[in-house]
Amino acid sequence: MQRTVASSPLAPSVKVKLIQSGFRTAADLLDIQPLQLRKETGVSEDEAVEVLQTLGVDAQSEQQRAQTQSFSESVTALDLLQQEQNQGRVVTFCSELDTALGGGLPVGTTTEICGAPGIGKTQLCLQLAVDVQIPVCFGGLGRKAVFVDTEGTFVVQRVVDMAEAAVQHCTLLAEDEEQRKALEDFTMEKILSGIFLLRCHGYDELLAEAFLLPDFLLQHPEVRLVVIDSVAFPFRHLTEDLSLRTRLLNGLALQLIQLASEHRAAVVLTNQMTTKFSKGQSRLIPALGDSWGHAATQRILLHWDGVKRLASVCKSPSQREATVQYQVTGQGFRDSSVSAEAEPCSTAAESERKRPRTEEQRR
Q: Dihedrals φ, ψ of 321, to 5°?
């Protein structure tokens, strides 16, 4: 287990400077010199030496221990295949998108959902937080979710609508005693109690929550879905020091990949869009830069084609690129071919679309 800066015996003022500069564990201080540490964190020379003496030894010990254990803890390709088959997937309630994803969002990996405001990113995340709780006998995982809200877009009433629709859907499908028995615990109230909500108001709070999540998941092993909606929003003002932003994002990406793998959770991140100018032309691309594009295992791009909503699987290690149509109805994220039993959602989805754009989105 890596030693963290927060748990070290360093002075509180020094720990704050280190954490704000992206140094959160002993491993982050490997191969760094006192002068470089002073420039990047603003600590004094004596404090830099003390930091490296206190945490540098831990970092080297951790690295040596990891090298020693690398072969003893190795697994075979067959082991990995069996793990993937046993972990399952989280369905989206859009059968065409589930097919394009190989059966849904895979557990144990990270998925990035990109798109413009109002396209349905939050709607899909809320749907996933409901769907992960569908009983196993109905093809779900019967597990819980953590929802990290950085934009204030988590609307409880919207989750209620989706939960009631999911319960109604499973009720209509129930055929045997096992399924009818499972429905006794699959209620709207049970679904709401199975979503742990965390609110963050800045990148520092988001990073702190990301490093606290492993302990939370150890205490709640029933969680199989972690949603961060969104990653880009907390970093929107951190544009003056791009190297710091890149380092913080890279650290966040590694933490989330490790979280997904070690705790067998599907980690879902939403990202905004920004405008890129090239050769006199402009086009919308996912925000946070090219390096962040490699952070998630797979990427789904939600976009408009006239009045149609399209979802494109544009990055996946196992699935080919594909584009499908979907809709957002009063009951949730659905296939475009499904006749809406309720009118298309004009509350959460449309309010998201009309919400003022951030400076980054305008650019």
A: -65, 140
H or E element, residue 276: strand 273-278
pLDDT tens readout for residues 73-115: 567 877 766 666 667 899 999 999 999 999 999 999 999 999 9
Number of compact structural domains in the chain:
2
The answer to whether residue 240 is domain-embedded is yes
Do the domain assignments include residue 195? yes
CATH number at residue 85: 3.40.50.300
Measured CA to CA in angstroms, residue 262 lies from 99, 216, 265, 275 at distances of 26, 13, 8, 36
Q: Who contacts 29 (Cβ-Cβ below 8 Å, separation ≥6)?
A: 23, 37, 51, 52, 55, 56, 59
Judged by phi (left if over 0) then psi (alpha if -120 to 50, else beta), residue 264 lies in left
Asked whether the whole model's pTM tops 0.85, one would answer no
Which amino acid belongs to residue 247? R
Tokens 């849904």, located at residue: 104
Residue 2 placed within a domain: no
Task: Output phi, psi for 21, to 5 deg.
Answer: -90, 5
